[in-house]
Amino acid sequence: MEVLDTSIANVALDHISGGLSITTDQATWVLTSYLVANAIVIPISGWLSDAIGRKRYFLLSIALFTLASLLCGLAPNIGTLVVARVLQGIGGGGLAPVEQSILADTFPPEKRGMAFAAFAIVVVVGPVLGPTLGGYIVEYSSWHWVFLINVPVGIAAWFAVETFVDEPAQVKKDRDERFKNGLTIDYVGVALVALGLGFLELTFDRGEREDWFASGFIVMSAIIAAVSLVSLVIWELNHKDPVIDLKLMKNRNFALTIGVMGVTGMILFGTTQLIPQMLQQVLGYSSLDAGLALTAGGLATLVMVPFAGRLSGLIDVRLLLFPALLVQAFALWNMSHLTADIAFSDAAFARLFQAMALPFLFVPINAIAYVGLKQTQTAQASSLLNVSRNLGGTIGICFAQTQLAGGLQRHQSELTQTLNPLDPNYNDWMQKAAGAFAGQGDPSTTPLAVLYSQMQRQATMLAFLDVFRAMMVVVLVVAPLVLFMRSGKTGSAPSGGMH
Hints:
The chain is mainly alpha-helical.
């Protein structure tokens, strides 16, 4: 539910703005409010689950998310909807980290691969199916059902967790000892997390719309985020009972997987937004048809996930991670060679090829991240992994949109310079085009307008290709980090470097 909701509302913004009689820019706060609340809660969810009790916190998160979804669907105005989305983000922030820690504690190391394979289906397929499902809902029903669809699922999930999920005895014992010795609540840490990650998410999410640092609001937001995050690191490293255990970063495998997970999030969320956007802007697809181009990739992921889970329990997962990153780089290189005349099948196949390798990133990363960690550290580790994935996705989307805007202006300028009235080829084309339009009895269409439209289309396509190339470079830079991880065969103890 939570992963799906990060993307499902995107395609409903126009319908929400029309239904509530607001501007599209006002409607974007439906997305921003959720993402900010989510970004604040995810990093502290590990501490909250340890303090409240893992199962209890999981049930509270499901209940809040479900209730907030109901409020979103019934919201009569934008104010109520934004407040409900904040509550939904708070509830959703506790779902994925706690689910991961439950999987890590329930299954022995040699079986975690298959467990995290099931989790990977949700993480990878959710953002892919979100826009498509949202498109179907708003096309054949109303925007309210984008949120109401969560209610029956949430109720069923609550009863399933209440019935089947147990908390590990060691985690209970550790929590009892902490309360016996006097649990110190890190109020300063919580405040710094809220300010740092909240304003960081706000900066990235609103930056493009507000023209970045030309906006006083974005400048203020970025400064608050930077000061708060630096202060957070210093404070948490010296606190007896930190809300975020940054000392986990001393574990080499965990620190490196945080970096790789961030780039994986960038790839997943970045391309999930870029491909439909490219199809809509360059080829004129509807949002529903553009979303369908991602469906083949979602199906490929479903097919490959069991293989990734099985192999993660049998071999050194570094032997899966490194090739998977290289495949991602090649897939992005392939996308950077698409043309403005691509068929639907070309775009779908490009995504399918990329999506086939995604399970061999998500499953091994989650498997190797917990190697060498104590059972009482898994909740905090899960929180940091989810922060890395989501923050990587946010940065990836922000980076893509900024590069698109800059690339479009650059390519427009370059192409305009080639349109020289003194060039015989230019004049010849203009004369032929004018004759063709006159012959069709369409004097309202001018050759210059058609030429500008084609130039705009070509410049847009070139800007998309630039972004795919830039993402490929980022993947190639990060891929060697895998070589510095310790032995990643999850059924064995940590050992030396890769050999």
